[in-house]
Amino acid sequence: MAEREKRPRPAPTPTNITQPFWDAVNEHKFxxxxxxxxxxxxxxxxxxxVHTGKRNLEWREVTGKGTVYSYTDTVIPARGFEGxxxxxxxxxxxxxxxxLMSLLHNCKAEEVGIGMAVxxxxxxxxxxxxxxxxxPDR
Amino acid sequence: xxxxxxxxxxxxxxxxEVKNVRRSGRTTYDVAAEAxxxxxxxxxxxxKDIDGMATVLPSSEAGNNFWSNYLGDHLGLQTSWTQTxxxxxASMPGNIARAAAAIQSGYxxxxxxxxxxxxxxxxxxxxxxxRSEFRNxxxxxxxxxxxxxxxxxxxxxxxxxxxxLGKLAVAQRNGAVVNEYAVxxxxxxxxxxxxxxxxxxxxxxxxxxxxxxxxxxxxxIITTTERAKKLGVKNMAHPISYAELTNFNVHEQLPDITxxxxxxxxxxxxxxxxMSTDDIDxxxxxxxxxxxxxxxLEQIGFCGRGEGSxxxxxxxxxxxxxxxxxxxxxxxxxxQPGLAGGQLNIIEALRQLFGEATDRQVPNPATAMCTGIGxxxxxxxxxxxxxxxLEKG
Lengths: 138, 393
Fold this sequence. Notes:
The complex is a heterodimer. Chain A is mainly beta. Chain A has one helix spanning 19-25; strands at residues 31-35, 40-42, 58-61, 65-74, 87-94, 99-103, 117-124, 130-136. Chain A has two domains: 16-62, no CATH class; 63-138, CATH 2.40.50.840. Chain A is built from one helix and eight strands, in the order αββββββββ. In chain A, strand 1 (31-35) and strand 2 (40-42) form a beta hairpin. Chain B has one domain (1-393): Thiolase/Chalcone synthase (Peroxisomal Thiolase, Chain A, domain 1). Helices cover 34% and strands 17% of the residues of chain B. Chain B has a five-stranded mixed sheet, sandwiched between helices. In chain B, strands 8-11-10-9 form a four-stranded mixed sheet. In chain B, strands 5-6 form a two-stranded antiparallel ribbon. The chains are: A mainly beta, B alpha/beta.
């Protein structure tokens, strides 16, 4: 197969809902929306609580610790990841009870397993933007 | 349980299909026109006999927020009921239920349900929300990556035998070989070893687990059984039950991603029809990936949870078998014409019920179950699950 041309990694465009989240990520903090009435978190960020339908959400900083719920080793790269394959993507359950998905760094495909302890880490997308990722919590 | 389709007063009286082609260079309107012309020819109707139209919003026209207006205008249809449905691959089975409700309510009498998409020629869709912020920047390989996650989790909880998925791939390929509407490049026989040795896309999902995108279109005509009889149509099939569920488990933040809305919509559709899975003569499930078909078999109730591999290995799924599955190749082997693929397997079910499936004909089928799947949410299983049961008229 011909070499794939490397395109820029897609960067999120913050919205009025997600701006506080991305501002925090760029300071290496991870915020989740919390519904104080339902006493539950939710992810991804939304305009209301899926638990109660109320716009009563608070941003709370979380531990960033979790476990691998599932994973996949990406062999054919997505747009903006050409030349980086193979790379691992993990679905991770945070201690706060939400599930996230992102790249799993510092881990070989033969090392990853469901239930493995991981923690959040950070990726530079470009000079402007950082993104969240995971690494083994050894 | 209320079933507005129970008395069989609604009939599907014909189908029209365009050959699946990659990068056809054609417009969505042109393939829609060909499918429409074919179904009109099949039924002997003209454009002025149609007073309702239902369609799906395809990625090739998603920038047009007047899509159904433009499409109906292009096709020469003056309609008193007009509907675009945008629940992805569930839109077209969904449109049969929506059209039936519109006909029963008196808004129209004869509906063209038309699916057309040319995503390998033009894509203009732009999905925001979780997709642009939380999916695309992660590097996950779109739907194959999402199903890679689902498959690894399934393997953690249950026993997944890849030979079973391979058997399903081969059975569908055998259908595509004799289906003149299938993408030409896929009309070559394959073996279970070909499946097992196929290139990985996003582990453990292989290239041959997946659909081949293409351009295409298909259409059906839905009317009252009374009008169908007056018209003296040569064939009809009744939609006798339908169930649909969107955003299954949306409140749960840690859902079991092997579980889908079919665990509710499947049993509901059967209960509405007062049927069990033994009453289903053929299964024509929406097939974006092979594992999706196995999850449907389990959750609709053809076999128990986690028993999909054993069920597939022990069941004859060929046209002459106990449960024929996607006899025309399905989207995986005939090609996926974007969201028009959501009606592909319904067309095959009709062809079978009408006894027009030639080399792959199921012997005298009386019933068929068709399904639809829509959208992949953020780290969850698919968003919409739709189940339609058809009965020969």
